[in-house]
Amino acid sequence: MKPLRRRTHQVRIDHLTVGSEAPVVVQSMTNTDTADAQATALQVRELSEAGSEMVRITVNSPDAASKVAEIRSRLDDMGCPTPLVGDFHFNGERLLAEFPDCARALSKYRINPGNVGKGAKGDEKFAFMIRTAAEHDKAVRIGVNWGSLDQSLAKRMMDANLASANPRQPEEVMKEALIVSALESAQKAVDLGLPEDKIILSCKVSNVQDLIQVYRDLGSRCAYPLHLGLTEAGMGSKGIVASTAALAVLMQEGIGDTIRISLTPEPGTSRTQEVVVAQEILQTMGLRSFTPMVTACPGCGRTSSTVFQELARDIQQYLRMQMPVWKDKYPGVESMNVAVMGCVVNGPGESKLADIGISLPGTGETPIAPVYVDGERKVTLKGDNMAAEFLAIVQEYVETNYGEGGKKRNAPRVIPIQAA
């Protein structure tokens, strides 16, 4: 059973809806120089093709701001409608004022209250950005970060805590300051004329337990959609594990409406890994489906051959590569499950449970591989061409079951909503 979603306002961002009545949205961010319009547009398209439904770009300088409209135009010419989110720090109000095409081309603004400015001047800057968003009917994410918290707010709350009869630990006060910053900024935005259904909040930290605590508290105190993610997840398995540990807990409790996995890419690797990880977290939790999943055993002394490992890898890569075409041609195929098993212990059972599965021979077993389709044994493969033959069976299964008139073609999905 899927977790009940926390009830929120619904925020419309171009063709997307963010909030409890819509699926959790996958977001990512470019790491190109935004002033390089071609490189940035190409990376946005790459992230979009990998499955990112919104892409954030850095808007930090006049050179960057002057290229945003061109980036949007290039994407439109490529047939890529993915909404662009402008990431503003320190000088956002000036860039929006000087480059109105930038203000119009972006679908959403990300504003960090801790980096807008101090005192009355900071209030003026914040007000200008919010009024600009309202004028252009843009959504805003008010994104508070542990590392750039409004120091005047933090000092005010720390002083009040020290003066109280039962002071809390400084760490607890700082976490409360994150939440207060987000909520107070959201209320200011509403007072300035930005509708509640144009506001998304986030309170990011880098520690898993702190993130869970902050978002539980924040979610209980407002009805705004929440964007989830660790501020800096890290590189490789560390970043993947930390992100999964934090986000899985929150989403199981119905908290979270957009997610981003802030992985540090390995040198020379694609930025798209963070998108794949986000999708796989959502899919393995049963919250969304993006691409057919492959069940494969880890291997043991019964599977000294690497055949099942190679076939599992090749099948997973094949399925992901096919999805840009399959998602429109074969709706529902993203929910298909394929099993590639390595020996007779669990192979037949797991293969029967999958939509389509193959049980390859383990060490010392008869060199045959039964293939199961919807729980029934369909054919037995043997010889050196088993991988190609199995791929052909998978393709035939997709065409038959998810093509026009197929019995598994996509049906409407119902997302449970938690009562207010």
Automatic annotation (TrEMBL):
It catalyses: (2E)-4-hydroxy-3-methylbut-2-enyl diphosphate + oxidized [flavodoxin] + H2O + 2 H(+) = 2-C-methyl-D-erythritol 2,4-cyclic diphosphate + reduced [flavodoxin]. Binds 1 [4Fe-4S] cluster. Residues 8-278 form the IspG TIM-barrel domain. It is an enzyme of class 1 (oxidoreductase). InterPro entries: Dihydropteroate_synth-like_sf, IspG_bac, IspG_bac-typ, IspG_C, IspG_TIM, NO2/SO3_Rdtase_4Fe4S_sf. Signal peptide: none annotated. Pathway: Isoprenoid biosynthesis; isopentenyl diphosphate biosynthesis via DXP pathway; isopentenyl diphosphate from 1-deoxy-D-xylulose 5-phosphate: step 5/6. This is 4-hydroxy-3-methylbut-2-en-1-yl diphosphate synthase (flavodoxin). It comes from Kingella pumchi.
